[in-house]
Amino acid sequence: MTESYLSRIGSLIRDARRHKDLTQAELAGLLGTSQSAVARIEQGKQNLSLEMIARIGEKLDSEIVHVSSGVPQNLRITGGVKLSGEIDVRTSKNAAVALLCASILNKGKTTLRNLARIEEVNRITEVLTSIGFKIRWLPDSSDLEITPPEKIDLGTIDESAARRTRTIIMFLGPLMHEFDNFELPYAGGCDLGTRTVEPHLIALRHFGLDVTATTGSYRASVDRSTSPTRPIVLTERGDTVTENVLLAAARNPGTTVIRNASSNYMVQDLCVFLKALGVQIEGLGTTTLTVTGVEHIDADIEYSPSEDPIEAMSLLAAAVVTGSEITIKRVPIEFMEIELAVLDTMGYECTLTPEYTSANGHTRLVDLTTSPGPLKAPLDKIHPLPFPGLNIDNLPFFAIIAACAQGSTLIHDWVYENRAIYLTELTTLGAKVHLMDPHRVMIEGPTKWRAGEIMCPPALRPGVVILLAMLAAPGVSVLRNVYVINRGYEDLATRLNNLGAGIQTFRDI
After folding, report:
1. Cβ neighbours around 424 below 10 Å, total
2. What pLDDT digit, counting tens, does each position of 214-243 carry?
3. Is 276 helix (H, G, I), strand (E, B) or coil?
4. Mean pLDDT value across residues 450-456
5. Is-above-0.85 flag for pTM?
6. Counts for the chain of helices (H) and strands (E), in that order
7. For 22, what's the count of Cα atoms within 13 Å in the CB-facing half-sphere?
């Protein structure tokens, strides 16, 4: 077995052991081996036979390795149960992917602390591993260590992994510092309609990057004589567009001014990380960023991304739809204030602790305790805006919140062509959702939820919205093919079960 394969097997075994609440010594006792042997296995330093892998899987009640058959993972949800207890918000998925891309800039070792262990991160680490980076999860942790190669080899890129994530577009910014000419597979990810990459390409041309779309790939060439001579005005205030320009500017030795920049949570995390690498950035948290880059970055760095406001909103929506009182800890309040203000107009109440600081030393956090009670529909439509407006990724959660409120609520998703359509799946569960056009739905509440079986939409947030609605529906519901949820959430079913939910994972045979 190769070293990378053993490391991946070791990580799976470690995660399964933790899920069973076993120590290494306890697992060693079940296997009739030593604790040090289990430690070596989990670190990927022990050769394993298929028989031993099967034995470990049996003791952990987990299928460590299975023959790939394309059989999707499904969820069986027993709904109508109130939740209770406390839950921590995990670190940001979108910050994680930005920081993984930023690690390409660094010739030193990058250690990302408490990283979200999700499928999106897995896809990017697979791509990085395939082009020469050494990636390993540190023992008994969610800390990821990234060691760059002497020379990146794009000829060995894992195209399958690359095509399964839209994040691959953010490789353009860092790779332009490594190659005069290079090629990347087309980006994939959620099915949210046409999302053009043109804003990325327009902005990166200021750095001499020219990209041609061919069959299945982007072909890029770099003119080293070109550098920004005037402010770059982004044609859309997009998160990934801003990040891509930041990654290009970070190792551009001049000063780059970015206007109409996103100031959203993941962009702020990326800025804090780049500043720790020696890049000068002014205007953090505003729509104008002034970046003075450094031509060479070679630093061993440890960094902790902040908590995920979208996960925080997901957990808050779970409490609302089930009428539950729970405490959500480590909520990044700066990126939830508009959402809470909208909820306040609907009659929702919650209590907040005094603020404290995230491990990144920058983001403001609170603990939030929900208070169940009757809701009324807002007088105005609910729609997203760039930060500090209501987050586009939080908008779908207002669909199930509106379904619990008395009256009619208009949800206007003006960004994506067809994400609103996925919200009509809630009708299977008893909600009254009227599709007005590809961008708008009218929702009438309150809803008498009922159990149902639904194929998970191919978009992350609508998929979670349906899962949360199933928590409210008395009886047994089934949500099929939930890979898209695993892309953005770590152990969501298990963590909801810890609050009292009844969710089982299964596969069709």
Report:
1. 16
2. 777 888 999 998 989 899 999 888 899 999
3. helix
4. 95
5. no
6. 18, 23
7. 21
